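Whether sequence alone determines local backbone shape is best considered at the level of individual chains. The sequence in question and its structure tokens are set out directly beneath this paragraph.

===
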Amino acid sequence: MDDKTIGRYGQQLFDAWQRRTPVAPLVEQEAGLSLEDAYRIQLDFIARRVAAGERIIGKKIGVTSKAVQDMLGVFQPDFGQLTSAMLLAEEAPIDLGGLIQPKAEAEVAFVLKADLVGPGITAEDVIRATDYVVPCFEIIDSRIRDWKIRIEDTVADNASCGVFVLGRTRGDPRTLDLAAARMELRRNGELHSTSSGAAVQGSPANAVAWLANTLGALGIPFRAGEVILSGSQSPLVPVADGDELVCTVEGLGSCRVRFTGRGAA
């Protein structure tokens, strides 16, 4: 795919994000869209957001757990870029009017104290390079109409990044068993789901190592200070005005999000 076509789709996704209006699946618009070209579209889309004033502050892994793969019909991990505009404060309600078709997922975020440059990164390397981990919510949001996505669609759409919220409680991954730690997700006080870190490629640290190696092969390093979202441990949760979600990770603490604005479809 030539640069002009890549730019056309990157602009289309940027416009959809700005206008909160979804577009038709890219795989329907472009027969034979490859995964490689989808990542080129993602980089173009994010470059437009950076040019508009945002900063890259981290990376995210998507579609890591079987629950999410089954729900979306996408059966391999992907990745996206986190920008400064995506990070929201835990104490502030999330305005659903700023999103298109949001769904929440609970996970663990890693905040790095050292660079990680793959390939060759192990889970142990990830733990050593991590300053701390926190429970978090990512509110994913597709610019593709009705979530009718294939892997190429979600990759081009920056792994369906919406916004994310980091919990206030920080933990040391050297003293936590992140694979075994139980996560409990409650919606409006009612238990919604339970899981453990093992749902994410055996351990959240394994998922982060996979991403470090995948990006390293593309010449993209992890940098000290970056936030890495390790992938959802929960089923996706549609959200509506007035909803409150709380995820609690055993031995680590909780993250709470509240929503205001229009309801879930």
